[in-house]
């Protein structure tokens, strides 16, 4: 047993420190674990704060303010944006997966599709686990699930974060990635705002969706880096 542990330790050190690639991957995994734990703790703390009604006053102030901005034209635009926020990530993910499969990037295609699919299921699980009622204002969209967190915000964040990550991973173009990241931030922000405007989410629902999205994005990257390190580790046999 001691001999096997010593052999494993030696192989691990060889994989992690004998090459630049191995060292970078191990460093990324370590930072990923830190972000994973931190974002999970933030989500738990934020959820407890919301359930204790500590931010209810802020939610009501923002909801009241945003509802006063309603106009027929803006309502039509917000309905379109919230529709795009719910459908576009899945449509584009399907198209991207087809593109990746054609280019023979099967691992990336599977990772992208599973990330968004499982992320959606997690968001629904959190909703029913926390079971926060929808805001008590006139709803301009039909929703039958609980309110917290916003899965529209969560899915938009996951999709845009993965899109920015994979664009840099494949093209290594910093300018293109920067532009895509800025557009992604705008898209995610507008989708979140549309949910508050339509009266189906509180401000804290949207923020919780972003936090949960970040946590799941980090989790997906951890899995990706773990597979990369496993391949490096296998080469030490």
Task: Write up this protein.
There is one protein chain. The chain is mainly alpha-helical and 237 residues long. The protein is built from eight helices and no strands. It is elongated.
Structure summary:
This protein is mainly α and 237 residues long. The protein has helices spanning 2-17, 20-51, 56-67, 72-102, 106-130, 151-171, 174-197, 203-234.
Features:
mainly alpha; elongated; about 240 residues
User: What's the number of helices?
Assistant: 8
Largest sheet: none
What integer is the average pLDDT? Answer: 83
Radius of gyration: 21 Å
| Helix-strand pattern | HHHHHHHH
How many beta-strand segments?
0
Residues in helices, as a percent range: over 70%
Content of β-strand: under 5%
């Amino acid at each position: 047993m001691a001999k096997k542990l010593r052999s494993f330790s030696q192989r691990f050190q060889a994989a992690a420190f004998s090459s630049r690639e191995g060292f970078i991957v191990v460093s990324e995994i370590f930072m990923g674990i830190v972000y994973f734990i931190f974002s999970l703790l933030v989500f738990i703390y934020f959820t407890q704060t919301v359930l204790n009604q500590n931010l209810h006053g802020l939610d009501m102030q923002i909801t009241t303010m945003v509802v006063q901005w309603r106009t027929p034209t803006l309502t039509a635009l917000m309905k379109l944006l919230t529709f795009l926020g719910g459908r576009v990530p899945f449509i584009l993910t399907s198209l991207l997966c087809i593109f990746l499969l054609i280019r023979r990037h099967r691992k990336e295609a599977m990772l992208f599709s599973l990330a968004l699919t499982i992320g959606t299921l997690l968001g629904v699980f959190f909703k029913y686990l926390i079971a926060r009622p929808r805001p008590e204002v006139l709803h301009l969209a039909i929703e039958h699930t609980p309110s917290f967190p916003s899965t529209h915000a969560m899915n938009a964040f996951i999709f845009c974060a993965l899109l920015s990550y994979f664009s840099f991973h494949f093209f290594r173009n910093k300018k293109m990635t920067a532009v895509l990241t800025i557009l992604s931030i705008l898209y995610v922000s507008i989708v979140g705002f549309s949910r508050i405007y339509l009266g189906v989410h509180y401000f804290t629902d949207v923020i919780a969706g972003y936090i949960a999205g970040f946590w799941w994005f980090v989790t997906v990257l951890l899995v990706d880096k773990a597979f990369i390190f496993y391949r490096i580790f296998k080469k030490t046999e």
